[in-house]
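Checklist before submission:
- one chain only
- standard amino acids only
- sequence pasted in full

Submission:
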Amino acid sequence: MALPWSLRSCLQRPGVLRSPRARLGGAGGGGLILQSLSDDVYQNLAVEDWIHEQVSLENRQGAEGNLRLMRQKGIKLARRRSGGGTVYHDLGNINLTFFTTRKKYERMDNLKLVVRVLKALRPQMDVNVTDRYDIVLGGRYKISGTAAKLGRTTAYHHCTLLCGTDKSVLSSVLKSPYKGLKSNATASVPSSVRNLLEEDPALTCELLLEAIAEEYATQHQIDHHVTLINPADEAVLPGINNKTKELQTWEWVYGKTPKFSISTYFDMAYEDSVLEVKVDMEVKHGRIEVCNINAPEHWLPPGLCQELAKSLTGSRFCPDEVTVLASTVLRTCPPNDELRNKWNLLCENMRMLM
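Returned file contents:
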């Protein structure tokens, strides 16, 4: 049993889900094919949670991606309930979610369905499922990754399908700026990727979604009609907006992340000099447990670095937090313009670490 669905974005967009008891208007006993009308990542993840609960993890957010670049590009950061590494979504990356009972959970069957669709559309295409549950093109390029959540009686499996995503943004935001990073979380495995549109410009998201829905319906002997749903509709999905709000809170996005440590350095240009500053941090559940900052003593008094490190200890791993704490400490500094300029430069670089 399952229910096709399509969430795509980072954003997320429409793919495939299936559920025996989705409690949606017009739902039959055999399953549904749903397509979200939203490209909001939080709304679509909330719908996954909602359906999973009706039919009845850890992600390393703060460490693995380039958070500063994401903020600059306006890319939303979300934490999902399934396991696995960090995933980039835009409107050229389809997300398919398959819901089922725990007993009937089989991700390989879902991936083979997608491969079957691709080969039916383009018989000459060399596409296969790997032992890691990735779908690869030409034996080399990854076009789909997988994650899952297994409950006591229910489960869901979701996978991506690269159609026309912005690969330059994908590679840049998934590349962590941190040197000396260690974490207990599941790490993403870097792979060469390729869009299906690069293989054939006719393989649009719309074509793929329609073909996958039809194949899914045929395999499970259900109506291939795709039901469009609004992930903000409380009449159809009671309580959905509270779930969406929860997924946007700091406590969920950062506060439940596994412990990680950073041992790094950054270079600061000041007047005619380039100065190296070393930083060591341990972060647990999104809060800094240990912090050491070492700047050249001839440039900035060690006491100021120690004061900043002391202030950051116990605070959220968050650039806004650095701004507030830095301003507080700055008020205790002597009225020395040069010292204040150095302090502001140091604090700005600390902000960029987060």
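Reviewer check: The chain has two domains: 6-253, 260-352.
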